[in-house]
Amino acid sequence: MTLVAGFLPSTAGLHFSNSFAHVPLETVEVPVLRVQVKIGDAANGLCGGMVYTVMDYFAHGQAPPSTTTPPQEGPLYDYLVRRLFESWDIPRGIARYLYLMSPELPDYGQVGGPLGFLSHSRASVMIRDEWPQIRDDLDNNRLAPLGLIKCKSDDPGLLGQNHQVLAYGYDLQGTDLTLHIYDPNAPDDDSATISLSLAGVDRSCQLACTTAPTLYCLFRSHYEPAGPPPDGTPWAPTP
User: Fold this and answer.
1) Are strands 176-182 and 193-197 parallel, antiparallel or unpaired?
2) How high is the pLDDT of residue 164?
3) Across the strands, what pairs with 28?
């Protein structure tokens, strides 16, 4: 087993779940119209912001706040929202989600139609493109943020059905891979995993996640350090 030293969801993850009230993510003033425009809804989830915030705490050697109640306002909430927007990596990240959601992209095998020149399948993306990057992170003691594709659709309005988690370790038995993850939907759960087969791009990867009933694909998302986040506690992880 390969694990990032000192990281476990129960100690280094946020201790509250990805469950927020119906409040706007941002409120923008429009002076000409003398109105406030509300953008987004926190009730749809802040998973990407939570993942990036956990990475920021860990990078700065800080334990996250001990609170088990999701903040609805204040410095930590504002930080989560900012990191959520940054986790989307607009426009590149959004395009990545939309491409991997496409119903025309097969789970494995060859691609026909207009997508044929871009990639072979979701299996090819995971095995040939994403796993080597994820493994490089984990082998070098770096956390690996993951975007999870949980629906197949051409409707951009369904982007919010996807998810983000954080890989902190892996087991590889032959071609059977298990990723150990922090999932914002399952706080303090050290047993959360994603499993898949790396046996070949011409067959099913048998992708499964202990915290998500439906999962079609995963990719390593782009992370740039920030912070430190508010209300952290100085902390020296145990090697």
Assistant:
1) antiparallel
2) 97
3) 37
Place of tokens 């059905």: 161
Q: Specify the pTM.
A: 0.88
User: What token pair was written down for 150?
Assistant: 């949980």
Q: Containing H/E element for 28?
A: strand 26-30
* 71-85: pLDDT as tens digits: 988 999 999 999 999
Strand 217-220 and strand 144-149: the pairing is antiparallel
Bridging pattern class, strands 62-63 and 233-234: antiparallel
What tokens appear for 162 in the block? 């996807």
CB atoms within 10 A of CB 175: 12
User: Which stretch of DSSP H or E encloses residue 123?
Assistant: helix 122-124
Check the CA dihedral 22-166-64-210 and report its sign.
Answer: positive
Contact call for residues 219 and 207 (beta carbons, < 8 A): no
pLDDT tens sequence across 125-153? 999 999 999 999 999 999 999 999 999 99
